[in-house]
Design brief:
globular, about 625 residues, binds magnesium ion, binds adenosine-5'-diphosphate, alpha+beta, 8-stranded mixed beta sheet, 22 strands, 5-stranded mixed beta sheet, 16 helices
Length: about 625
């Protein structure tokens, strides 16, 4: 048989390598920023257009490259950072594989301009799909400018796979954050489509974090610090009360490199044991310096995973460091700040006689005299005290929505899925001995009501989610929501990044009743809210929306509407554990069966089950 194995031509090999290194515009941004840092830059500019699909430019004031180096830098395995394999274990640079520029040049149009301190004249090189188009001398300041245009121009499948500009920009911003947080001594500018997103001056670590995540971050941070022969740790964890339902601001840096480590994440989370709810995550910004000989960075092409020699020790040290700082933080307020003057004993009391405190007991008190389940008006008022957000009573939530269907559901027209049923599914009032009291609440979780064939058990929270979900979906698309004017405008601060997301979803928010009077760099001002949203909940709801949008990678408008409606429905629905009075129970039942898809919650869980008389009869045999 003839020989069949051939060496791949360089440009094909580069394209294949590019598949590993460059997944999306953000990967290019990461590689170019890292090169600029390795070149010793003190000022780095990042410029992107159209989510980086059409343009990514990184300009630095680093050491630059000679004419020969400039040409060589695009060759595969061409690097100035290591010379022999052992150097891998003494790395002080971000890059070392020498394949980023070769990979990027294989799948994009690249223009490099660079000059060293000592050279009189600089070099300009143009490359398209690994082919050198031109190389000529040029006048340019010391440093390097790398322009990457039309990413994946020669791999349409990859280009089509890219998400919307907004989603790609978000990925770029994430990479930018990580690099900028690791290098506060370097000033960064970041422009998107001609407008400035970030202008970060040289700073210390704390100020850099605050600059990136917004001024309200400052009050959340608790410093951590520890130095052992194995590792030096410093940075910040967020105070427990700022733990979020979603993962987000969690960063590890090892030797100035952002890394992901589920194992070390666990160490931090476990240090918060007992301080935060089990379904929330603490935010943290943790920097670690270890001997480069004790880690292997070369286990992943994007270099975000690292292998530590002694991970267990690191885990233990990290956990106790965080625990220690949280402990310190927890005692401080008691000793020092925010003393409640009401609890202080006035100095003039020092000579007063001590009197034993008296306890008075109401001997006629009967805890069963007035219970929440009582079928009178008092029951309803008790219920309200449990449903803390719905002080007006659940059924009043619909006031002003202009949706008459809510109050006048004609159940005779609702078709119920059960073979034995014809016509009306609910017993008409006359034939029902219990008359109007046709619903009961079970264990603050289920609403039970009778139907002709037996009974239906409704999950109150899921049912309300379904009702709200359809309402919001309708409001967003039909744009007919009513808002409540606020007496005083509400100002909320957010990080620059969060504001970007709010801008993205603003139209939908307006459609459901939010009124924004100002959206600025780090804050928004709200003058109107959807009827269902209480002022005290706005901040929590917007944060949930932002984090859900961040998770959502599709970024198209249908899924955005759907996502918003789901998040709002989930946040605002009646929860398990809340007592509903009878009117509310009935309204919920009516609303549920007026829904288009009453059987499932927006998250595809069943909202109710039916138990037929037959089923019950069988149990008694
Ligand atoms: P690596 O960073 O792994 O060495 P790259 O392909 O990213 O590989 O870069 C190749 C080489 O090009 C680098 O080793 C460096 O010498 C040079 N280089 C790249 N970017 C810059 C820059 N912004 N300034 C100076 N030199 C650079
Ligand atoms: Mg590099």
């Amino acid at each position: 048989m003839a020989d069949i194995i051939k060496l791949l031509p360089d440009h094909v090999a580069n394209q294949i390598a590019a598949g590993e290194v460059v997944q999306r515009p953000a990967s290019v941004v990461k590689e170019l920023l890292e090169n600029a840092i390795d070149a010793g830059a003190t000022l780095i500019k990042l410029i992107v257009k159209e989510g980086g699909k059409n343009l990514i430019q990184v300009v630095d004031n680093g050491v630059g490259m000679s004419n020969t180096d400039a040409r060589l830098s695009f060759e595969r395995h061409a690097t100035s950072k290591i010379q022999k394999a052992e150097d891998l274990f003494n790395l002080n640079t971000n890059g070392f594989r020498g394949e980023a520029l070769a990979s990027i040049a294989a799948i994009a149009h690249v223009e490099l301009q660079t000059k060293t301190e000592t050279d009189e004249i600089g070099t300009s090189i143009k490359i398209e799909g690994s082919k050198i188009i031109s190389q000529e001398p040029t006048v340019t300041p010391k440093g390097t400018s790398m322009v990457v245009k039309n990413l994946f121009f020669n791999i349409p499948a990859r280009r089509n796979f890219l998400k919307s500009n907004q989603v790609e920009l978000r990925h770029i911003t994430d990479e930018f954050h990580r690099v900028a947080m690791a290098h506060p001594k370097i000033a960064f500018h970041f422009y998107n489509n001609g407008s400035e997103l970030f202008n970060l001056p040289q700073d210390n670590f704390r100020k850099r974090i605050v600059h990136i995540f917004g001024s309200k971050t400052n009050q959340k941070l608790v410093p951590i610090a520890e130095e052992t022969p194995v590792v030096k740790i410093w940075g910040f964890v967020n105070k427990p009360e700022f733990a979020k339902k979603s993962r987000g601001e969690q960063f590890f840096f090892v030797n100035n490199r952002f890394i992901k480590s589920p194992y070390l994440h666990h160490a931090v989370v476990s240090a918060f044991d007992g301080l935060i709810k089990s379904d929330t995550y603490p935010g943290y910004f943790i920097y670690m310096d270890v001997d480069p000989a004790t880690i292997d960075i070369n286990i992943h092409p994007t270099k975000t995973e690292v292998k530590f020699d002694d991970e267990h020790t690191l885990y233990a040290i990290l956990r106790s460091t965080v625990k220690h700082s949280l402990g310190q933080f927890n005692v401080v307020p008691e000793i020092d700040f925010e003393e409640d003057p009401n609890l202080k004993t006035p100095y003039s009391y020092k000579d007063k006689e001590v009197v034993m405190p008296q306890v008075t007991v109401d001997s006629g008190f009967n805890p069963f005299a007035d219970t929440a389940t009582k079928k009178t008006g008092t029951g309803a008022s008790n219920a309200k005290s449990y449903t803390k957000t719905n002080t007006k009573g659940w059924e009043n939530l619909y006031e002003g929505l202009g949706d008459s269907a809510v109050k006048q559901n004609d159940f005779s027209s609702v078709q119920f899925e059960s073979e034995t049923i014809t016509g009306s599914i609910f017993e008409s009032e006359e034939s029902n001995e219990q008359s109007a009291a046709s619903t009961i609440q079970l264990r603050r979780k289920y609403i039970i009501t009778s139907i002709k064939s037996g009974m239906v058990v409704i999950d109150q929270s899921r049912a309300h989610q379904r009702v709200l979900y359809e309402k919001f979906l309708k409001n967003i698309t039909v744009k007919q929501a009513v808002s409540q004017q606020l007496l005083f405008p509400l100002t909320l601060s957010f990080s620059n990044n969060d504001i970007q997301i709010i801008e993205e979803i603003k139209d939908s928010l307006v459609n459901i009743g939010f009124v924004f009077s100002k959206i600025e760099k780090e804050s928004i001002e709200i003058t109107g809210l959807p009827i269902l949203v209480a002022e005290s909940e706005v901040s929590m709801i917007l944060e949930q929306l932002i984090s859900d949008c961040q998770m959502d990678v599709t970024g198209d408008s249908f899924s955005q509407t759907d996502l918003l409606s789901k998040t709002l429905a989930k946040s605002l629905s009646v929860k398990t554990g809340e007592i509903l009075d009878e009117t509310s129970q009935l309204a919920l039942v009516n609303d549920l069966f007026a829904c288009k898809e009453s059987q499932l919650s927006p998250f595809n869980k069943p909202t109710y089950i039916t138990i037929t008389e037959n089923d019950i009869d069988k149990k008694f045999i």
